[in-house]
Fold:
Amino acid sequence: QVQLVESGGGLVHPGGSLRLSCTASGSIFNIYSMAWYRQAPGQQRELVAGFSSSGDTNYADSVKGRFTISGDNAKNTVFLQMNNLKPEDTAVYYCSMKFLWHSGYWGQGTQVTVSS
Structure:
């Protein structure tokens, strides 16, 4: 099986930046895609950014131009650089990885709070 460990969340002021990291361990081979999701209080989990093994990326409209997803295959790690953070970005952020042989795994989540 695969285990995902996330880090980098915290409390920041509006306009600030954070970089989230997620490292995978276990049976890591044939990665299909990596992604970040978030879930705000009282809301459903939504896709924030996705990154395929071929290098294609996609972003939610609300974060385009502010967030960047990237990965390091050698370290089995996916990052989410978040700039110009807004209060609306406050949520628990989750990473996920999909494989050719499995539909996907989830991390435990890391809290991001943007407040004055």
Notes: The CA atoms of residues 1 and 13 lie 38 Å apart.
